[in-house]
Write a structure and sequence with these properties.
Blueprint (H helix, E strand, L loop, with lengths): L16 H4 L8 E5 L2 E3 L4 E3 L2 E5 L6 E4 L3 E2 L4 E8 L6 E10 L3 E11 L4 E8 L5 E10 L6 E10 L2
Parallel strand pairs: 6-12
Antiparallel strand pairs: 1-4, 2-3, 5-7, 7-10, 8-9, 8-11, 11-12
Length: 154
Amino acid sequence: MFLCLPSAKTIPWTLQYKEYINQLVDQGALMLTVTGRVNETKQILAPQFNFRLRTPRLIITSQEDAVVDKELTVKITFQNPLSHELKNVLFCMEGLGMQSVRMIEHGDVEKLATVTLMEKFVPIVSGSQKLLATMDCRQLTQVHGFADIVVKPK
C-alpha cells in the first residue's frame, strides 16, 4: 500500500485466535509490530504495541438473603469465549467470614459453552463481605469475579 504525504489510512484487520494462540505469553499479553518504509528516504518504521487480551468475567450472584449461620447458595456463571475446548478447568472461591478457600475441579468446558455452578456455604460473620471466585486452566488464565454480599445477623 502506498500513501502520499500528508495522508493517513486506517486498515481494518482481524486476527483469528488460531493465528495467535501459540504467540501468547504470560497473562495473555501480545506484542504487535507494524513495519513500513518511506520510499523517498528509505527510512524504516517499526512501532511496537504491547497489549493484554481482555479476559471474561465470572458472574457471582446470591440466590437468597445472606444470614449468619444459615446456608447460602450462590451461582457462579462463566462463558468460554474461545472456539475450542478448555481442559481441566479449576474454579476457586473464597470470602473472608463466609467461605474458606474451596477448589472445584470442573473438568472440561466445551467451546463457547456456559458453565453454571451452584455453591453452598454458611456465612459466620455479619456485615458487608466480598465473595471472590477465579477460574483457571492452561488455555485461559486470570478469569475472576466478585460479589458484594451483605450478611445479616441471626
